[in-house]
Amino acid sequence: MKFQSLYDEIGPDRIQELVEAFYPKVYRDPDLRPLFEGEMSEIMRKQYMFLTQFLGGPPLYSEEFGPPAMKARHLPFEITPERARCWLQCMKEAFEETGLNDLPEGEVFYTRLTQVAAIMINSEEDTLH
């Protein structure tokens, strides 16, 4: 029996739904909005490509942009513990909206994202406000 990746379990349509549910929340968040420059549609496209690869699907992100190296790519942005919490809250709401939180593989996926959020922190709390 072939091992099923999280990508195989969740599928591209659900990933797209998650991205579409997530970014409007991010753009409404006053702490996160300053981190996102440019068109939301392009940021969403990149996130879809990254999550596809992150979950074990085709390496869409690497094929277009090279290795993800997300920590390095996010260094120019001030990511505080509070911003990481806000990001995860938006993601949690998007998981609920799309029903991913009801799936066992969704729980694994969200746990992996909490680990990513912790790794991305590069600034202290008091510099945010």
UniProtKB/TrEMBL annotation:
It comes from the Bacteria. Keywords: Heme, Iron, Metal-binding, Transport. GO terms for molecular function: heme binding; metal ion binding; oxygen binding; oxygen carrier activity. InterPro entries: GlbO/GLB3-like, Globin-like_sf, Globin/Proto, Globin_bac-like_CS, Hemoglobin_trunc. The keyword Iron applies. SUPFAM superfamilies: Globin-like. Its cofactor is heme. It holds the Pfam family Bac_globin. PANTHER family: TWO-ON-TWO HEMOGLOBIN-3 (PTHR47366:SF1). Belongs to the truncated hemoglobin family. Group II subfamily. This is Globin.
